[in-house]
Amino acid sequence: MTSVLVIALLNLCLAGHSVAFVPIGGGASTHVSITGTALLQTVTETCRAVAEAAGHEFKPTGSSPEELVQACLGPTATGEVSGAKFHSALQEIYTQNGLVDRDFVNSAPHHFNSEAFLEGRRLITEGVAAIKANIRNENFQASRETLGRVLHTLQDFYSHSNWVELGYTEPYINLIRPDLPLENLADVDTATCSDCASGTCPNPILPNILKDKKLTSGYMGIFSAAKPKGKCSHGGAGDLTATEVPRGGISKDERRSDNVALHTAAVNVATAASLQLLQDIRFAAGDNDFLRMMGIARSSVVCFVIDTTGSMKDDIEEARAVVNQIIDSKKGTQDEPSEYILVPFNDPKFGPMTRTTDAEIMKREISKLTANGGGDVPEMCLSGLQVALTGAPASSHIYVFTDATAKDIQLKDTIVALIRTTKSTVSFFMTTSTGRRRRSLRAASFEDYKDLALASGGQAIQVSKKQLPQATDIILDTSTSALVTVLQRARNPGKQEKFSFTLDESLKNITIYITGTSITFTLTNPAGVSQGHNEANGKLGTIQTVGNLRRIRLNADKQTGAWNININSNKPYTLKVTGQSTITFIYDFVESFKGPHPGYAVLSGRPQAGQPASLMLSLMGRKGPSSFSVGAVGLVTVSGPETVSNGTATDMGNGDILVTVVAVPEGEFVISLKGTDKVSNSEFQRQSTTQMSVSRVNIQAMVDSSVEPGKTLEVPFSVRTQGPGGKYTITAKNDRDIPMTYPVSLTLTTGQYGNGTLTIKPPTSMPSGTDVTVTLEAKSASGDDSNYAVLKISVVTKITDFVPPLCQVVSVLADNCPHDVSQCGPFQWEFLANLTDGNGTGIDRIALQQGNGNLTYTTLSIPNVVANYTASCCSQIVEFTAVDKVGNVGKCYHSIERSAGPPALSLSLPLWLCLLVSALLTRP
Questions:
Q1: What is the per-residue DSSP string for 374-387?
Q2: What is the pLDDT of residues 800-809, one digit of tens each?
Q3: Is the pTM of this model over 0.85?
């Protein structure tokens, strides 16, 4: 299906158990629309199951992601709910789906072209195995990226093969079941198509192919017209083989007047196949982890990176106290963190990372930290921060506690690249210690931490150890859901300047932070009421001063409209205005790509200098995109003289906007957005936190597969510069300390690519599902220009068990159930089944999917597990799944409804059906 734009198109309305399907782009359906339909339906069904299991009704108040997330997280939890993480998860999947048309445009298996059926299925099954392994290890970003690519290949089967021409209306289960053979494939010498001179014949498949149910697909030639004699072509302007007899093509990518019925059939079965695959992954992962993969979680994540050297005893105690306060004060609210992450460091050690959703585990792990060792001031701070940035979800708030400079300062560029890629915010709490020797290191100073904090939109707070408990209030402020930035600026050197910003009605808990020394300021509201820096409790709010931090918490009755703050200092300072609101946006810098299916690809690295910058924004409001209108969108410098470059916005519909900025500011910049909230009819202002800049260097690198432990993976990459040619230094770092080989430099000619290969070999002991983050950087000889690419590599043990657990019914005792269902109350029925995994990896988990009864089973460690289900005769259907240790899913289903027949395959039922004997449908 045509990949028109690789963007989130959330124009799907939730109604009951289904999500309405809306064609996009000239009446055709796209990979995005098909994927979106399947994802939103699966998420809705999963949310409903989780809500009902928790004992509350799942009832979204509307169709926006925010309303879906609110209903899914539970109506009893108080606080603001943001749909940003859900949006971001969808965008990642859509983006990777679309990139298959760019990165693998000439790969037949990725599109099921040229009858590459076995190879295409291998991509799907290996990809699904990697997804399940990544989810088990909580590497959700890697699982989303692989899911997008796998769905593209799966969907292309129905558009590029003759499956629907053969009359099939259900998905081909064998594509996602490697234990089942692909049958009746046309061999290379069998002619499959008749000649179609016009190129628009309704169905050029030969009659004998249709009669014998032979499976074929169109040959695609981007660089060559060659194809086997008599074979079908893909067709279309980009396919050179379509001009060779037999001419024409069988692709159903686009809806045309000659293929409306076939295109529609392909869309329907591709959607059904996507649903089946998603439900298999959902059952393998479990409902909660599936929703975490999809970004359905409270938006707050607490991530601490803590120096554990001997002088840090007081700091560790304060970090422990803050964690306990967050856990105890925010429990049961939407501000309760969805995850807790802890990374200790000293010298020479750092890590391991603790990552958990269990608050008690976080309390226990942080209580184990002790301060010891040290003596030399520099510590492995950036190594610990690297582990946190690669291990925490994107857009996390990370808090670093240290009283020492960084010994591993060579990682600074890598940290900046990871900050820009993850869009995470890093704040440093820097205390001073008098008992440590300072080792002389170039650039090893607290200024490095200030640079990193500013680059991420965080704070660099410098206090004494005694003052630290007051400074950590900022962690309580930012460990909240739906946190947005209204304004952030920095001045170095400092000067007198008035900063204006707009507060809208949706904002709550508004806080202003100023860092620096020798500062005076005056804050003024829209009514002209002012409060000075020396008024701790004034008419506008409360001011807390500790170390280099001023924290201004506005009163709850703040006025909406234009505010300003006049700051005066000749020393460097920063200003940040934040609040809680569901009105926010996510974004990516993108570049267009051409080919048979053109689109937009997310940039990995900095945008190119000397040309317009393009970015794709997704906007979110309290009631979805219809609840706001967009005014100005542009790029604005944070430091130095303020430069604003407004862009030209193209509304893509449903809150998605393509912004083109012709005059990109020099230096570091962020995105500024202004608009109107229609709910309150008030103007709003938002800003991104992560600073970005342009580069004349470009790196292209791609990981197209997972790697087995102990095996070598080669990653080709290309580097180009539009600046001066010459020798460019190549560096690569990864977060697992795995040895890598790569060229240490490339000699570049302006405008031409230089090529290299990075080689990495994970150790044989590395667990399956481990996610390795590689940061690759190219830097000019002068050091004044560089760019980077951040790659995710999944380490997955080769799977040999593809057979799902089997279910065999032992007995159904339902004779006591009355024929009149209205009299069912006092009566019960019982279902008994044996579950086995044969010679497989063994059953790992059993879960009830349908039914209100009680499911029990014997220990899972034995080969034959006996499952017993009892329920009221009023609850007449039971369905439970058995998942083995590599994620294969088997299912038991039984109904005592008197009109019930065998369970039909439908979009709402998973396809992994176990072997059921005829007793399954025993009637009373």
A1: --BS-B-HHHHHHH
A2: 999 999 999 9
A3: yes
